[in-house]
Amino acid sequence: MQQDVLAISPHLDDAVLSAGGRLAALAADEQTWVTVYTVFAGPAAPPYSATAERLHGLMDLTGDPVQERRDEDLAAHAELGTIARHGRFLDSIYRTRADGSWLVGNDPTDEPDGDEPELHRSVTAAIGSLISELRPSIVLTCAALGDHVDHVRTRDAVLDAVSHHPGVRLQLWEDLPYGLWAGQGAPPSSLPHLAVLGEPFAAEVPAEALEAKYRAIACYRSQHRMLWDDDPDYRARLGRHQTANGGGERFWDVSLSRAGVR
Q1: Where along the chain do its domains lie?
Q2: Which residues contact 5 (CB under 8 A, 6 or more apart)?
Q3: How far is CA 98 from CA 91, 95, 116, 117, 156, in A?
Q4: Is Acetylation given among the entry's keywords (predicted)?
Q5: Model pLDDT for residues 60-93, shown as the tens digit of each residue
Q6: What is the pTM of this model?
């Protein structure tokens, strides 16, 4: 019996870092199609913010920064055996406020205040259309551990979209590497109203799937300096974390009110 799986990733690498082993294991089943849709993968044109320019330098992105990262993502998903689809929405480092000022200030670790209601509606609609098209039995997305604005926007839009599709199971993954930085067992921040988080569980990752995940992570060349500069042996770091999680990647089931979460 075929079961389609839809994973919704904030950025180009988040799904692989956090759930790549499970995605690879699911995709290894010929009866399962696994699609990974990255929300904030839209093309960005210069001029760029000072934050974006600094990050481009850190990532050694010298051409079209988003296209280079999209190419990395396609290579990563080829390793997993999953289907990559890229959204049109801009990463927070490329977005502006209504007054034209950059959403993220000079420090890329700063998180902007306030909601982006129009963005929420547009992302929710895009995800809802994808669910209607693919008819997945399960949707996976981030728990927004670490509260990165794009992760929160993604999670909340997925919750809202799935609430209008009865019968679709929803699970949230532990955002990595945020989970490494937050400490073992750290829970996500509170969810929107009428979304109830279940107990965490570890999804087992077979050895072959784990190797596919590591090969996929290696494809994200531009991200390695930013993610692993203090300890580039990400296999060991992720392996220790997975062992502490009970030998698998960490997820939560979510129950939703079908009236919506906002």
Answers
A1: 3-256
A2: 23, 26, 32, 33, 34, 35, 136, 137, 138, 139, 140
A3: 16, 10, 10, 12, 21
A4: no
A5: 999 999 999 999 999 999 999 999 999 999 999 9
A6: 0.94
